[in-house]
Design a protein that fits this description.
heterodimer; A: Rossmann fold; globular; B: mainly alpha; ABC transporter involved in vitamin B12 uptake, BtuC; two-stranded antiparallel ribbon; 11 helices
Chain lengths: 240, 290
């Protein structure tokens, strides 16, 4: 059983690639409307947690629940059909496709033309810059624009939870602020957010709750503010 | 003036020839883009499509042109079955596995064809009367097959550009992981891409039966040209495959006319080597990620 308000829940998940174990028991929960961050050092297994949550990687042990239902062996596209959105690391997009085409592909599961049109309008409202570049190919866009495109694409399927893998990686400080503002906008519209961030201080300032994952295991958890004030977190993960 | 008209004729003959390669190469390139599998059995779909058209005409008295309407759906389904039962198993596996598998399928199909159909050449005599075009005379079937090839190429292009399935195929070939995150069932996309490729190869087989003849080994001979075309255009780039096909066709026609038929046979590979020296990833090769 899971809590009623839990959208995504991982329980004691272990896993890895080939014979190399990366996760040694990770548990976490994201409830309706929450903004949750995962922080931790490089190589701690943060992105692997996402791969398991999205179904790209089968866990060795442990359970994954989506809206209270076990989805351990459900393929990725069916998790997306259950309103899970995913923005991968590195702002990966389809380089040869235009902004419009990205959003069309993002709305693959939305069958009604009218609903697709409304979703696109909503995305353009959040990211006006995308509206200006509708016909531009993604491969020719800047890093910040591609991050917005990637988030907009994920929003087209109207997810109830969206997983963001390192959304601020490699962006200039000004763009980082912009991206976090967009994340808050999306969250305030009622979409639960789970993000992995190497910019731990920034992530903790914006998140309602956060998990510290280290060596493939849960290390600490608490509200963003608690962890921000925690001396051990400051020393080990915030660099001072 | 005569010299100029001669050049026009050589180029036109090259374009006519290139269209056949284009039908084969676009499917080959699409399959590679979506699955990262080099399909050595792609030529055998052309061979089977050609034989099917021949027997529909000779035994079933179907109009040669209409056979294409039967051959394409049949090859589509055949492609779906081969993909789901066999090729899907080697997606994401080491290259050697997929090479051995598709090479094996190719050999099996070719030998079955030899056993059942014999090694005789079988052509459909149809629209053989000459027609005048820009100062030279061509058999009508040449113009006809160029027209059909052009229509199919345009349909394929529009399908990939404007339909949601077409966009899903392009998305999957550019980034399968993100395509899945859009809710796309990439297994189905792989099956449909393979089936579309097989249907196009089948159509090319019909045209081969009308313009020349089909025989069991035709696939394994013509596939080498198609590989040259695909590599020339850039692996995975369908627009590149179309362009590369026409380029190879013209080069082959020019080589045959100005030098000799033997030179014409190797010219595709000479062009390939020359282009790769300048652009190692092919004409449009920058698009495909490793």
């Amino acid at each position: 059983m899971t809590e009623d308000s839990a959208i995504l829940q991982l329980r004691n998940v272990t896993g890895g690639y080939g014979k190399k174990q990366v996760l040694f028991g990770v548990s976490l929960v994201v409830r309706r409307g929450e903004l949750v961050a995962i922080i931790g050092p490089n190589g701690a297994g943060k992105s692997t947690v996402f791969k398991v949550a999205m179904g790209y990687l089968q866990p060795w042990e442990g359970l994954v629940f989506l809206n209270g239902q076990g989805v351990r062996s459900l393929p990725t596209h069916e998790r997306v059909a259950r309103r899970m959105g995913y923005v991968p690391q590195g702002r990966v997009v389809f380089p040869d496709m235009t902004v419009d085409e990205h959003l069309d592909v993002g709305a693959w599961l939305v069958k009604s033309r009218e609903a697709r049109r409304r979703a696109k309008e909503y995305v353009f409202q959040i990211f006006p810059r995308l509206a200006e570049r509708r016909g531009q190919k993604a491969g020719t866009m800047s890093g910040g624009e591609r991050q917005m495109l990637s988030m907009g694409r994920a929003l087209m399927a109207q997810p109830t939870i969206i997983l963001l893998d390192e959304p601020s990686l490699g962006l200039s400080p000004k763009l980082v602020d912009e991206v976090f503002q967009h994340i808050e906008t999306i969250n305030r519209a009622g979409v639960a957010v789970l993000m992995v961030e190497q910019n731990a201080a920034k992530a903790l300032r914006h998140a309602h709750r956060a998990y510290v994952i280290d060596m493939g295991k849960n290390h600490l958890e608490g509200s963003g503010k608690q962890l921000l004030d925690d001396p051990e977190v400051r020393r080990s993960y915030l660099g001072g | 003036m005569d010299q100029f008209l001669l050049v026009v004729e050589v180029v036109l003959r090259g374009l006519f020839l290139g269209m056949l390669y284009a039908l084969l190469a676009s499917g080959l390139s699409m399959v590679f883009g979506v699955m990262r599998v080099v399909n050595f059995a792609h030529g055998e779909f052309l061979m089977l499509g050609g034989f099917l058209a021949y027997f529909l005409w000779s035994l079933g008295h179907v109009n040669p042109l209409l056979t294409i309407v039967i051959v394409m759906p049949v090859m589509f389904v055949a492609g779906m079955v081969v993909q789901r039962l066999l090729v899907e198993r080697v997606v994401g596996k080491p290259v050697l596995s997929s090479l051995l598998l598709t090479f094996g399928i190719s050999i099996v199909l070719m030998n079955l064809a030899q056993y059942f159909f014999t090694t005789n050449l079988r052509g459909i005599p149809y629209m053989g009367e000459p027609a005048q075009l820009l100062g030279a005379s061509y058999a009508r079937y040449t113009l006809l097959s160029f027209g059909i090839g052009g229509v199919l190429g345009t349909v394929l292009f529009s399908f990939l550009r404007f339909t949601s399935w077409g966009k899903a195929i392009r998305a999957t070939s550019q980034n399968a992981e993100v395509a899945m995150a859009c809710g796309i069932d990439v297994r189905r996309v792989r099956m449909v891409s393979f089936a579309v490729g097989a249907a196009l190869a089948g159509a090319a087989g019909v045209l081969a039966a009308i313009t020349s003849a089909v025989y069991p080994a035709i696939g394994s001979i013509i596939i080498l040209r198609a590989f040259a075309v695909v590599v020339l255009g850039g692996l995975g780039s369908i627009g590149g495959a179309l362009l590369g096909a026409l380029l190879i066709g013209v080069a082959e026609s020019a080589g045959t006319f100005y030098l000799s038929a033997e030179v014409g046979q190797i010219i595709a590979f000479v062009v390939l080597i020359m282009v790769l020296l300048v652009r190692p990833a092919g004409i449009f090769g920058a698009r495909v990620e490793a």
